[in-house]
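Suppose a colleague, Dr. K., hands you the sequence of a protein chain of 178 amino acids and asks what its three-dimensional shape might be. Before reaching for any lab equipment, you can write down a predicted structure in token form. Begin with the sequence itself:
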Amino acid sequence: MESTHTFTIGRKPNCDIVLTDRSVSRLHATLSVSNDGRWLLRDHSSSGTCFVDRDVSLEGRSACVSSADILQFGESIITVQALVEEIRRKFPELFNHREEKSGRAKVYGPLANPVCGGIIGFSVVLAIVFTVLCSEKVREFLTAPVWQGIGSVAAIIGAIAAVLVVVFMLRGVESKPH
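The predicted structure, expressed as tokens, is then:
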């Protein structure tokens, strides 16, 4: 895959995507885009703390990633989609031509605020999901063997269902008298 642009991710202020979490290396990873629009993530961390979808450790290697993938740099979690949106916001000149040809809508807005101690989301829904993932019981449930090997559409539907269940459970807990 021949990359046309490479973006740096890390704690250093001159990185293209700056993550302020102390568990993130100064230069933790790079995200490259190819001429055909594919994204390649490469781990540069010395600690081997660059994960794709919570279970694939890159450990100095590269992997093709899609917008649905969830990435972990140190203890910070972010989706590929959120990274791409932030890159488009910071470097609009790189995407305008391609977007005009494809007719896709442009993405605006900054990366959302940090949520739940260094976990980053890009929308209210993801903030809720990431907050819920902080719960050890929910993490055990979502990483159970029954979920492994299913397609990404089914995983998204399952994640939405899990979030709705947790939201309704939390509403029930809040409404109980103390």
